[in-house]
From TrEMBL:
Binding site for pyridoxal 5'-phosphate: G115, S116, D250, P311, T312
Positions that bind substrate: W55, Y148, K277, G310, R394
Subunit field text: Homodimer.
Family annotation (SUPFAM superfamilies): PLP-dependent transferases
Annotated organism of origin: Nocardioides antri
Site residues (Participates in the substrate recognition with KAPA and in a stacking interaction with the adenine ring of SAM), renumbered to this chain: Y21
Function field: Catalyzes the transfer of the alpha-amino group from S-adenosyl-L-methionine (SAM) to 7-keto-8-aminopelargonic acid (KAPA) to form 7,8-diaminopelargonic acid (DAPA). It is the only aminotransferase known to utilize SAM as an amino donor.
Name by which UniProt lists this protein: Adenosylmethionine-8-amino-7-oxononanoate aminotransferase
MF (Gene Ontology): adenosylmethionine-8-amino-7-oxononanoate transaminase activity; pyridoxal phosphate binding
Lineage of origin: Bacteria, Bacillati, Actinomycetota, Actinomycetes, Propionibacteriales
Gene that encodes it: bioA
Catalyzed reaction equations: (8S)-8-amino-7-oxononanoate + S-adenosyl-L-methionine = S-adenosyl-4-methylsulfanyl-2-oxobutanoate + (7R,8S)-7,8-diammoniononanoate
EC numbers, comma separated: 2.6.1.62
Length: 427
């Protein structure tokens, strides 16, 4: 146990450690976590409900005995070996499981080391495939406004160029092609048809230079927590097929049950699928890219003959072992019932917030609840108010939202709803 006093830890943190999207010279406050169990974390010595699942990854909560056991047993064997020229049972078993539970056509697996890297790999796959099938001039990606795909450079290039977090890099990033944002989740047939026509027109105009189409299926996450109609997925598939594009689904946020589907790709099969976040149940960083045999063969036909990517920690045994245990835990339980219970409580509990001053929209999908304000959230004030109510939230832009762990109980859900309410009032 550390003997360093909390105030010393926080003082060093403030002076020396960067946090996500935070100024180094004028950082926003951080709180000290000293423990976590179930659906709660210990923040500044107080147990609070985690409304964020540690950025959507800790779907089972914390210190789950089965995941702890998987991690410990693998650590007792070996923690890491290079994946170049070597393999091991955790990677093979995880690859087999991912092939089994994703759409049948997706049978080739690349084990990356983070969500952003998985998107980089997917985009590299798309470009190498086009080179392998004799279309090297196709070097741009088609996507839609409102999306978010990660923080590395190619990922930033397919993230919303105006309203997204990476607009400052305009002019330095690869220039991709953007179609209209999908309509709201409750849009009618006419709105969907109008959106479809616009997207098809953009794709037709640029088809000669397009290599692939990348989207977050059913729910755009960090770009605005924007759910959209499932009918749009078929449009993406048709556009890709019509113009010879590879369709990439970024399910880093939506995979493993978050929207009420194990994978949104069950509805429409992409050519390339990116998974991350909840893959290890929030224990370690790991991502996976799955693709079809046809895509793999196209990549192998490119001039390099191989996929030009190989992270040092690719297929890390610890991460693979805990990922396999997390998937087993998810599928052996009533994950769909739990997600449905969370959705029911969030839908009913957030609805009254529509009447609060400054609230412009309330929406839910699966185990996701969103309150949108008519102004940027005062993050510090909203966070303080939620903590005072026994809840950890991390608002951004004009959104106060939650993605809680699936096993969260009714009492904890009620406390979560109370914390969201207080955050909305303060934010």
């Amino acid at each position: 146990m550390s003997t360093t006093r909390p105030e010393e830890l926080l003082a060093f943190d403030r002076e020396h450690l960067w946090h996500p999207y935070t100024s180094m010279t004028d950082p926003t406050p951080v709180r000290l976590v000293t423990g976590a169990r179930g659906c709660e974390i210990e923040v500044d010595g107080r147990s609070v409900v985690d409304g964020m699942s540690s950025w959507w990854s800790a779907i089972h909560g914390y210190r789950h005995p089965e995941l702890d056991r998987a991690l410990g047993e693998q650590a007792a064997r070996f923690s890491h070996v290079m994946f170049g020229g070597l393999t091991h049972e955790p990677a093979v078993a995880l690859g087999r499981r991912l092939v089994d539970i994703t759409p049948a056509a997706l049978e080739r697996v690349f084990l990356a080391d983070s969500g952003s890297v998985s998107v980089e790999v997917a985009m590299k796959m798309v470009l190498q495939y086009q080179r392998g099938v004799g279309r090297p001039e196709r070097t741009r990606m088609l996507t839609v406004l409102g999306g978010y795909h990660g923080d590395t450079f190619d990922c930033m290039s397919v993230t919303d160029p105006v309203g997204g977090m990476h607009s400052m890099w305009s002019g330095l990033l690869p220039e991709q092609v953007f179609g209209p944002r999908p309509p709201r989740h409750d849009a009618g047939p006419d709105d969907i048809a109008a959106w479809s026509a616009q997207l098809r027109a953009v794709a037709a105009e640029h088809a000669h230079e397009l290599a692939g189409l990348i989207v977050e299926p059913l729910l755009q996450g960090a770009g605005g927590m924007h759910p959209y109609p499932a009918e749009c997925l078929a449009v993406f598939r048709e556009v890709a097929d019509e113009h010879g594009l590879l369709l990439v689904f970024d399910e880093i946020a939506t995979g493993f049950g978050r929207t009420g589907h194990l994978f949104v790709s069950e509805l429409v099969t992409p050519d390339v699928l990116c998974l991350g976040k909840a893959l290890t149940g929030g224990y370690l960083t790991l991502a996976a890219v799955l693709t079809t045999d046809a895509v793999a063969r196209g990549i192998s036909a490119s001039e390099s003959g191989v996929l030009m990517h190989g992270p040092t920690f690719m297929g890390n045994p610890l991460a693979c072992a805990v990922a396999l245990a997390s998937i087993d835990l998810l599928l052996s339980g009533d994950w769909l019932g739990r997600v449905g219970h969370v959705n029911e409580r969030l839908t009913a509990g957030l609805a009254p917030l529509r009447d609060l001053p400054g609230v412009v929209d309330v929406r839910t999908i699966g185990a996701v609840g969103v309150v949108q304000l008519d102004h940027p959230v005062d993050v510090v004030a909203a966070t303080d108010a939620a903590l005072a109510a026994g809840v950890w939230l991390r608002p951004f832009r004009d959104l106060i939202y939650t993605m809680p762990p699936y096993p969260i109980g009714t009492e904890e859900l009620d406390r979560l709803l109370g914390g969201i309410t207080e955050a909305v009032k303060a934010g």
